[in-house]
Amino acid sequence: MKIKDGFMLREIAGNWVVVPIGQRVVDFNGLMTLNESGVLLWKKLEHGASREELISSILDEYDVETAIAENDVDEFVNGLKDKEIIV
Amino acid sequence: MDISWGELNNNILKIAKEKHIPLLGAFELTSRCNLACKMCYINLSASDQEVENKELTANQWIELAREARDEGMLYLTLTGGEVFLRPDLELICTELSKLGLIISIATNATLIKSESIKWIRSIPLLTFSVSIYGASEESYYHLCGKENVFDTTMKTLELFMQNSIPFKVKTVAAKSNKAELTKIFDLLNKRKIPMGLVDYLAPRFSESSCVNSCERMDPKELIDSENVLSEHIKKSLLNQQSARLNKEMQKTFKEDCITDRNSESINKDYAFEKCLSGYCAFWIHHNGNMVPCGLMDSPFTKPVVLGFKKAWKDLLSDCMNIPICKECKQCKNREFCLTCPARLKSETGLFNKPAKYLCDLALIRKSTAKEA
Fold first, then answer.
1. With CB atoms 3.0 to 4.6 Å apart as the test, which of A46, B277, B286, B335 could cross-link to B292 if both were Cys?
2. Are the beta carbons of B122 and A21 separated by less than 8 Å?
3. Given this model, what pLDDT does residue B242 score?
């Protein structure tokens, strides 16, 4: 899975915000804010990552159970899929 | 994960203000305009080649935006004059859209061709702030000095709506259009477009004479006009079916009137007490001078020469030296007053001298509030 071209992750006054850039690539024309773990997953997905790699990155960074990490990753990825932001 | 622009604003504005991050910028791309509005201070002739040659180039604006973005700018307004006079506006917007900015274009909407809609639609997060000046060709001609522009403006608004291009509309309370303010509201309300009202016209001086005083209403006249409009809006909206729309229409009108007055104060010993200018907003004039707010000519720094980062730092430092108006600080009518360094300088020539016009306005607002 990989983030489509046309999005920029920016830190604005301490908040992480995803801003669409360049030619509008999808219908999504709003903003997204990401929390710390969202930023971690987004940065992985910018270069392309599998579900397993994403789950591993959460488990490496945070002291959480695998089931919680899986749930968080699925929720995050499904949110991006709904907006057609990842391929 | 998704938040509205308003929510994002609330989250970041406070921090930007505290940390002096240049979150909001305005680029005055040109001082030329195709209209000649009597109350306007920046409407040099559209065909003035000498003026056009002095404007910053597209590359200069794009580089300034890149540098400002790196310092934290998120919101950028492109303004003029009339920005659609610039043949390179599409290029500028296209390049700016690659920087991760939320761009707003201020326009009179009289020069936007239907062919432009394609590139306008392709820019993410692009919104328009349209100024309209009357509700008929006659009033436009009287105030703006041009024929057949009212119809063009309305057609552009229709074009925006047909193509789902986000825009807001504001008008200016001036002598020439005061009788038309309710008609302008009706015109917009019929199309479900909220109306913003600019209720303060700063005096602008050119070669020692005031260039727009003929259009500025005196305080009593202004408040009366506002009250008439406000009552008209209330009555009109009461007759409408949609409660949501009703709320939205009222909110927009009021917000545009009181934005500055509601802002939070951080430092009581700083001249910029309530406004975002002097904290996290800047304006770059067509000549490249960066100032805290578009009403001001000074203090200024030169970001094209110094680089944006240093120019911003120097500007904040200069702002610290702006003298505070002690009388205004202690005034018992202060909560009803529009006073700020930019307006005081514009009204009196000094940052720290009370302005009679603002004092009179505050007094009337206070007594109106008491009566209410």
1. B277
2. no
3. 54
CA B171 from centre of chain = 10
How many other CB atoms sit within 10 Å of the CB of residue A69? 20
- For residues B239 and B245, is the Cβ–Cβ distance under 8 A? no
> Cβ distance B315 to B299 under 8 Å?
yes
Query: What is the rounded CA–CA span in Å between residue B126 and residue B123?
Result: 6
pLDDT at B315: 98
Write the pLDDT tens digit of every residue in A8-41: 999 999 899 999 998 766 667 678 889 999 999 9
pLDDT in tens, B147-193: 999 999 999 999 999 999 999 999 999 998 999 999 999 999 999 99
Chain A partners within 8 Å of B5 (Cβ): 31
B248 near B259, Cβ under 8 Å?
A: no
Determine which helix (DSSP H) or strand (DSSP E) holds B291, and give its type and residue range.
Answer: strand B290-291
Report the first-to-last Cα separation within chain B, whole angstroms.
42
Question: Are A17 and B16 inside 8 Å of each other by CB?
Answer: no
In contact, A16 and A34? CB cutoff 8 Å: yes
What is the SS3 assignment for B30? coil
DSSP B124-187: TT-EEEEEE--SSHHHHHHHH--SS-HHHHHHHHHHHHHTT--EEEEEE--GGGGGGHHHHHHH
Q: At B127, is the pLDDT very low, low, confident or very high (cuts 50, 70, 90)?
A: very high
Q: Which residues numbered 16-55 in A keep a CB inside 8 Å of some CB on B?
A: 17, 19-24, 29-34, 38
Nearest-CA neighbor of B226 among B187, B152, B174? B174
**What is the full DSSP assignment across A22-83?**
SS--SS--SEEEE-HHHHHHHHHHHH---HHHHHHHHHHHS---HHHHHHHHHHHHHHHHHT
Residue of chain B with shortest Cα separation from A32: B2
Gap between the Cα atoms of B6 and B2, Å rounded: 12
Which chain A residue has the Cα nearest residue B15? A13
Question: Does residue B365 sit in helix, strand or coil?
Answer: helix
Query: Which of A13, A24, A34 faces B21 most closely, judged by CB atoms?
Result: A13
Q: What ipTM does the predicted assembly reach? A: 0.90
Rg from Cα positions in chain A: 13
User: How far away is chain B from the Cα of A12, in angstroms, using its nearest Cα?
Assistant: 6
Q: How many CB atoms lie within 10 A of CB A86?
A: 19
